[in-house]
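Researcher: We're teaching a course module on how sequence relates to structure. For the next exercise, students receive a sequence and then see the predicted structure as tokens, so they can try to spot secondary structure elements on their own. Here is the exercise chain.
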Amino acid sequence: MHITARCFPEGTKGVSQHAVTAAIGYKIASGEWKLEGNYAHGKSNSTNEKYNIWSAGTAYEYPLSNRTLVYLYGGYGKANKLLNTGSYRSTFNSWTLCSGISHSF
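Model: And here is the predicted structure for the students to work with:
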């Protein structure tokens, strides 16, 4: 399991926030299943408006060879308070689904 925590000092631009990320992977049927989660809360330095945001996702990676793999990913993210208003609303409250192939040279 991997956990990361960050603290950004308060300044005159942008935001001040605290964030944490956790992820875990497990071998299944010659591939790897992964699960991750993220959470952050903070405030705008210019307006002092608060916000929080979270996301969770899962992926499966299956190697076709030593340098090629196929993957599937699905996740959801949601924001509250400041980030759930105006033009931010559709950006931070959404589902993500994708699949693909990756090859290393």
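Model: If you want an answer key for the exercise: Residues 1-6 have pLDDT under 50 and may be disordered. The CA atoms of residues 16 and 35 lie 27 Å apart.
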